Amino acid sequence: MARASKNSARLVIIVTGANAGVGFGLCHRLLVQLSQVNPPDSRPQLAQSTPYSKVNGHVFANSPSPPGLTLILACRDKTRAENARAALYGLLDTHIAQIPRPSEANAYASEFRRNLLLQIHRVDLGNTQSILQFGREISEKYPYISHLICNAGVSTYSHINYIIFARQCFESLLKAVLHPTYNVQKVGVISGDNLGFVWQCNVFGHYVMFRQLQPLLAKYKIVSECSSPARILWMSSVDALPLYDPTDDWQLTKTNTSYQASKSQIDLMTMALAQSRKVECNEHEATIEHLLVTPGITPTNIAAELLQSYILELFRLLFFYICRLIGSPHILFSTYKAAVAASHAVLAPLSCLPHFVHDEGAVAFPKFSAQTDRWGNESVGIVPVHQWQEHPDEGSHLIEQCERLYQTFLKAEIREHRES
Which domain of life is it from (predicted)? Predict the structure, then answer.
């Protein structure tokens, strides 16, 4: 394993589900941003943030890290991951070729390209043993992790109820696009680990990954010259809704809105983790920043599963365009643009990222959201996240449930190794 030093604290970023959709768009955006001396996404974009000129004199290019990046594509399908890696190298080469030469910008981007490593590690978030193995592989190969981006997600959508769709559109087009109730989901899908499938892939799998990598994440603050803590980005949704019974359905096997409920659980858990930051770490005690992000509403494979015909796909695009023109700020047609909020949360100084916002007279937790104007210009906004009034401690309870289950899997693995 390479030895870390303060002079070699390059960014080491893990992105789950990096081979397609928003994950791929985020990888593409990070490569373009980091190949620039001063990445535009590192600049303040929020009214609540500290002005750029007052961020302790910080400019991203003054980071001790040399041009370069280790980007780990954490994917279930190795072949698709290899195709994604080749495509990302190609996109970056195209971007650099468009920079005038000779110039300082081109020289910097070319050096970044020479120092770039796109690594592939296989992991299946629906299989806890796979995640534990992934954690061991990463720990053996890398001295620290600077960012963990929990992006991958699944759903069990089966079809569209067009009667409900028509009724929702008649009542409110903006509500129909923001909180669609016409996308029908399968109920009771169980994973190979005998857990709720959507819950395991979207919530528990990423929690296990976080716990496995926590020592490496904690080390980043030690090796970083600017003493910046590692960051974990939890990918949520603008459609996150707590539509489940927390007393007997926390694995989301009974609700018919398991996808929305899983994203709501991510909101609540991230809020609790960010407020406590006291989960034990075996090797070092260091702050790890937990940030909540969402790509807004953008065409992905999850949406494509509902639309089997080309005509329906065109109709969906027309529907999205109409909703954006009449005022919805959440619709982005490019996964590259949809990654703007996550990219900003990765690159911006922490003092530019508010830890709370005021919403309707109450203090709320910020969910950094990709937004756009009517003409498609992307920006970063904030969607306030409030405590669940009926269950204000649900985030902490979910963490306790996940931790108990995580320890159970750890003990079972240790027992199996001893028996073998």
Answer: Eukaryota
Q: How many CB atoms lie within 10 A of CB 23?
A: 27
Q: In the numeric block, which tokens belong to residue 351?
A: 């003092």
Quote the CA–CA distance of 175 and 164 in Å, as a whole number.
12
Asked, for residue 147, whether it belongs to a domain, the answer is yes
What residues pair up with 297 in beta bridges, in sequence order? 331
Give the C-alpha distances (Å, rounded to integers) separating 164 from 158, 161, 237, 315, 322: 15, 6, 21, 16, 19
Q: Provide the residue type at 91 as one letter.
A: L
- Which residues have CB under 8 Å from 383's CB, separation 6+? 238, 294, 366, 367, 369
Domain hosting residue 261, numbered range = 6-419
Using alpha carbons, list the distances in angstroms from residue 314 to 149, 264, 304. Answer: 31, 30, 11
Nearest to 352 by CA among 332, 333, 337, 366: 366
Residues acting as catalytic residues:
236, 259, 263
Q: How far apart are CA 101 and CA 112, in angstroms?
A: 15
- Residue 146's nearest CA partner among 67, 41, 217, 223 is 217
- Give ∠ CA 6-8-11 in degrees, rounded to 5: 105
Give the tens place of pLDDT for each residue, 155-201.
999 999 999 999 999 999 999 999 999 999 999 999 999 999 999 99
For residues 58 and 63, give the distance between their C-alpha atoms in angstroms, rounded to a whole number: 8
Number of domains comprising the chain: 1
The dihedrals phi and psi of 314, each to the nearest 5 degrees, come to -65, -40
Residue 75 lies in a domain: yes
Contact between 12 and 329 under an 8 Å Cβ cutoff? The reply is no
**Sign of the CA dihedral with 110 first, then 223, 345, and 395 last:** positive
Tens of pLDDT, residues 301-349: 666 667 667 777 788 889 999 999 999 999 999 999 999 999 999 999 9
d(CA 266, CA 82): 29
Kindly report the backbone phi and psi dihedral angles of residue 211, in degrees, each rounded to the nearest multiple of 5, phi listed first: -70, -35
The answer to whether the CB of 82 falls within 8 A of the CB of 381 is no
Separation CA 32–CA 53 (nearest Å)? 24
Query: If we measure between CA atoms, which residue out of 275, 244, 273, 271 comes closest to residue 257?
Result: 244
Single-letter amino acid code for the residue at 239? D
Measured CA to CA, the distance from residue 257 to residue 249 in angstroms comes to 12
Predicted TM-score (pTM) of the model is 0.92
Residue 1 lies in a domain: no
The CATH number linked to 100 is: 3.40.50.720
Return the DSSP state at 35: T
Residue 273 located in a structural domain: yes
